[in-house]
Write a sequence for this structure.
């Protein structure tokens, strides 16, 4: 369960999303799978315990990127399949949110839990809401909806 929560949180922070995407944990294959609005699988994430990282694959099984926790800087760093750093994400304890940065240190996204609406909201660097994640208990999966603003 702890592994599933870890994979979910990391994928929640980094997945590139379109309108009405979803993700679901596949316990048989021990991975988190991502689906488009027509419920076609577009990729999956799996923990590599040997290299101590989370790896992301497209639907054909080609590695797209991976994430590794940097304990020294207290952040999660994202790399492409060739090992080039794409950016990083860290928790802002003061503002109680997660912030995503590109490889040059420019802030890209902010993710914050909305207790009242029971969802994770995603904002760009200017504070404009881009969308939100909400858990669908009927289908047992997280769904992402783009903001119409």
């Amino acid at each position: 369960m702890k592994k599933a929560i870890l994979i979910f949180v990391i994928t929640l922070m980094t997945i590139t999303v379109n309108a009405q995407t979803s993700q679901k944990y596949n316990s048989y294959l021990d991975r988190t799978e991502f689906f488009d609005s027509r419920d076609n699988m577009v990729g999956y994430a799996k923990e590599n315990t040997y290299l101590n990282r989370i790896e992301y694959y497209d639907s054909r099984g080609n590695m797209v990127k991976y994430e590794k926790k940097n304990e020294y800087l207290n952040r999660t760093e994202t790399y492409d399949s060739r090992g080039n750093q794409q950016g990083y994400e860290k928790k802002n304890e003061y503002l109680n949110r997660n912030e995503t940065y590109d490889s040059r240190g420019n802030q890209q996204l902010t993710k914050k839990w909305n207790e009242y609406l029971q969802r994770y909201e995603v904002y760009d660097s200017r504070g404009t809401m881009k969308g939100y994640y909400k858990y669908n208990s009927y289908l047992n999966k997280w769904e992402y909806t783009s903001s119409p603003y």
Notes: The two ends are 36 Å apart (CA to CA). Residues 4-9, 12-18 have pLDDT under 50 and may be disordered. Residues 29 and 144 are 23 Å apart (CA to CA). The longest helix spans residues 2-14.
